[in-house]
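Researcher: Go.
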Amino acid sequence: MVIVHKPADWEVDGLVTEEGGGNHAPLSAFVQSLLPRSKYPLVWDVRHNYGFLHRLDVPSSGLVLGGTSLEGYYWLRLQLDSQRLQREYFVLCQGLAPPSLFEVVARVDVAPEPTQRRSINDSGKPARSLLSILAHIQTSSSQHSMGQTMSIVSIHILTGRRHQIRVHLRHRGHSSVTDARYTCREVLLLPRQMQGLSALQLLQG
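Model: Structure:
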């Protein structure tokens, strides 16, 4: 297997093109530059999404897990689908999220095009996210005496809908910071590297 740290503005590419119509640097090209086709044909195979087992939205940065052989790919896929392999994300979002916000269960609609914004809709696919509020942040501002409030949130997704984290956070009134697609223009703009991070945890036993 291979674990790659995806920078912001890179795309975890595959059969489906992410937002921007493929105008972002493809993560597959980086992996292919390290793993030759003759030895690792899977990472050159678009039918298996170049071996990538999950996605990260283009504006986000974090770890992406991939297989380098069909055996490893499907073994990891089994662990991911059975929740043996967990994905945890760390997001800087707007406002002071209350500690009582520990779960979001809301259906995410299926937009006709990958570039379109998702929303919460009763006709959408079931989606569940578990949240843990790690910290509250109060910024200082020369224009506003109170500055801006933000929260650092740890998120464990139990389903893998496209843009699920961004849609669920917006649905609960705490959109991720610097997210042009799901956040209003008036929010504080911070470096993209602070918007979203992810971690992978393999459970023991």
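Model: The longest strand covers residues 128-138.
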